Structures are given as structure tokens and as C-alpha cells.
Amino acid sequence: MKPQPTDAYSLILEAIDVGIFKPGDRLVESDLADRFGVSRTPIREALQRLETQSMLTRDGRSLIVSSLDYNQLAELYVVRAELEGLAASLAARHASVEEVRVLRDMVEDDRALLGKPSELARANRRFHKQIHLSSHNRFLVQQLDLVHRSMALLATTSLAAEGRDEDALKEHDAIVTAIEARDGEAASEALRAHISKAFVTRLKLDSGEVKSTV
Questions:
Q1: Whose C-alpha in 44, 74, 164, 198 is 20 to 30 A from the C-alpha of 213?
Q2: Burial group, residue 204, by CB count within 10 angstroms (0-12, 13-18, 19+)
Q3: Residue 58 DSSP label
Q4: Long-range CB contacts (< 8 A, 24+ apart) of 33-37?
């Protein structure tokens, strides 16, 4: 089971990440202190930190969860594809046998989550994080953490699009297969293709061309 965050910053960030707080939601110190059972001082410090990281935006005297415009979304996916492609390539070269086994088990276990977009989205984040760690490059992992923090500002998961969950798992399978074969180029290409397809799905969701199941 994933350990629960205990500091105010992590608590709020986790709530944004899992969709408890969505883009446009107003965050109030007193409400957050009551919700998480902590004093207002660490809440205030956490909100200030999240504002400096552009996770929160000031609306008058209030702080609201930020949202990404079209250009920001496109820029984010470009950077994500490049960095994740590099992570997959490095993982193919440097991941231990045990790390590769964990990735394979994740793909197999996630089949049970088909049709459950919220749960699959959390599993998807764990899968990508495992690839990042398996790259064994701390600076790349730090940059990817920043990218995925910004991904939390997306109100819905692309995995909620009809049929996307099955396709995404097939793409995960292809990524792991390349990593198992120690083929860095194939792993990078598979992961870049995966991100590209997710972006296309995101655009179709936002335009209303495809419907969300949640």
C-alpha cells in the first residue's frame, strides 16, 4: 500500500494529484487545516510553496488550483515525451533484473483495473515513476517529478476515454518488452509513441470528440 503523506505540502499536492482538488477550486487555509488535521501555519507555508511552483494561482485574495491553457498543455506533452523517452532508454540499459520484473508485474496486474479509470490512472503514475527510477539518473528523475507535478493540473485522465485503457496497457506492454530486451532505442520509441497517443486522446477529450467515462 502506498504510504500516506504527512506534511501539509505533500497532503495538498496529493489531493490535487488524485483529483480531490481540481483546477479552479479555491483553497482556504482554515478548511485545509480542518480537513488534514494540521495547524494553519504549515498550511499557509505549503500554499505559498505551491503558488511559487505555479500549482496555485491568485484570484484576488484567494488561491485557486491552476489550470493549463492549450499552449501550456502542448508544451508539457513535448517535454514529457522527450524526458520519458530518455528514461525508458536508460532503463533498458541500467534497470536491474528485479526492476524489470516489477515493471512486467505492473503491466499484468493493471489488467484487473480495465474499466476503472481513476484506479488505472493511479497505477499508470506508479508505472511511469518506476521507469523513471529504473533509469538510475537522479537529475532526470527530478525533472520528471516536476513534469508529473504539472500533469496533476489536468482535470481528467486520458484513460477515461472509451477504449483508451486497453490501448494504454498494450503500449505499456510494448515499453516493458523493449526494456526486457535491453533495446534502448525501441524502449524510447515505444514510450514516446505512448505519450503521443495520450496527448491525441487528451485533445479529443477536451474538444468533445470523444467522451469521458467518468
A1: 74
A2: middle
A3: E
A4: 36/8, 36/11, 36/12
- Decide if pLDDT at 214 tops 60: no
**Helix or strand run (H / E) with residue 102:** helix 97-110
Paired residues of 27 in beta bridges: 63
Question: Cell numbers at residue 77, please?
Answer: 506533452
Q: What are phi and psi of 58, to 5 degrees?
A: -85, 130
Residue with cell 538510475: 136
d(CA 72, CA 141): 21
Does the predicted model carry a pTM greater than 0.70?
yes
Q: Does 148 score more than 70 pLDDT?
A: yes
Give the length of the chain.
214
- Per-residue DSSP letter, 59: E
Instruction: Say how far apart CA 113 and CA 15 lie, in whole Å.
Output: 21
The pLDDT of 28-46, averaged and rounded, is 93
- Amino acid type, 15: A
> Per-residue pLDDT for 10 more than 50?
yes
Q: Which domains does the chain have, with CATH numbers?
A: 8-65 (1.10.10.10), 70-207 (1.20.120.530)
Place of cell 521507469: 131
